[in-house]
Design goal:
Blueprint: H1 10-15, E1 43-46, E2 53-56, H2 59-69, E3 74-82, H3 85-95, E4 101-102, E5 105-106, E6 110-117, E7 123-127, H4 136-151, E8 155-159, H5 166-179, H6 182-188, H7 193-198, H8 208-218, H9 225-235, E9 239-240, E10 256-257, H10 261-268
Parallel strand pairs: 7-8
Antiparallel strand pairs: 1-2, 3-6, 4-5, 6-7, 9-10
Helix pairs in contact: 3-4, 5-9
């Protein structure tokens, strides 16, 4: 039976009615974290441009997301973006590739990240571990994505662990533990408390770790309170930080509070 004659998988057909549509706060990814078997490497993190929670399925995907979420020309980021089934069937026929399917039912092809940029074409990104590229079937699926986006007039790029600098990797490991319970973090962090505590840094050129230790003494806090607070704030994406520099070398003046924490908090309250 030709791929064009096969039915779409019922689960995917149902999801397409509400997923992959809209933009910004209204967008819903085709795949959400709680819908897959997790190995502890999935993340839910608030986006500064979309004002919604993003569902990221690996630490490498988180790395790519953070890079573009900090990019000044980014307008929106859509993760787990579903490609039109009609187009992917046609592409597979053209390339002589079997369309992704399970038990004879077609599965939707998704792109990990679609970056919408100001006054520039979209950038589609496939995120893979380099070892996955040894699998011929993985390469075939990547060909489908690449062909689709280039036909649409947009760039398509492959992102692997080799695109992650040593400093970014160390920074992600530092905030990893705080990232594991983001729902709790968003509940804990008040949109009133964050600017108040942030003011204690006062734009100092002193290293963040040194200043936080001094603040613990000044406010009679448990040792590690302030650095722990800022670690959570960074993990929740309330602060812009120099990811290209190891966190232990950050100066207080390099941390920038998002423009309106109140707006972020409003967006978080409606997260699903």
């Amino acid at each position: 039976m030709l791929d064009s004659e096969k039915p779409l998988h019922p689960f995917d057909e149902k999801l397409l009615k509400t997923r992959g549509l809209g933009s910004g706060r209204q967008y819903e990814p085709f795949i959400k974290v709680h819908e897959i078997s997790s190995t502890g490497e999935s993340f839910r993190i608030f986006g500064r441009h979309s004002f919604r929670i993003h569902h990221l399925l690996s630490r490498i995907e988180l790395s790519a997301f953070l890079i573009f979420d900090c990019y000044k020309f980014t307008i929106d980021i859509k993760e787990q973006f579903p490609l039109p089934i009609v187009d992917t069937i046609s592409i597979c026929k053209h390339l002589g590739i079997k369309h992704p399917q399970i038990a004879g039912k077609l599965k939707v092809v998704t792109t990990d990240l679609v970056i919408e940029l100001k006054n520039k074409p979209k950038l589609a990104i496939a995120v893979k571990r380099s070892e996955e590229l040894q699998d011929p079937r993985v390469l075939e699926k990547l060909q489908i994505e690449k062909y689709f986006w280039e036909q649409q007039g947009h760039q398509w790029k492959l992102f692997t662990e080799f695109e992650i600098s040593a400093s970014l990797k160390e920074n992600l490991q530092w905030i990893h533990a705080a990232s594991q319970n983001l729902d709790e973090i968003y509940t804990e962090l008040s949109d009133l408390d964050i600017p108040l505590v942030f003011q204690r840094l006062a734009g100092s050129n002193i290293r963040l770790t040194t200043r936080c230790a001094a603040l613990d003494d000044e406010y009679s806090c448990e040792p590690g309170f302030h650095i722990g607070f800022f670690r959570k704030v960074i993990a929740a994406n309330y602060l812009s930080v120099p990811l290209d520099k190891v966190f232990s070398k950050w100066s207080c003046s390099e941390l920038i509070l998002v423009e309106d924490v109140g707006i972020l908090a409003e967006g978080i309250s409606s997260v699903s």
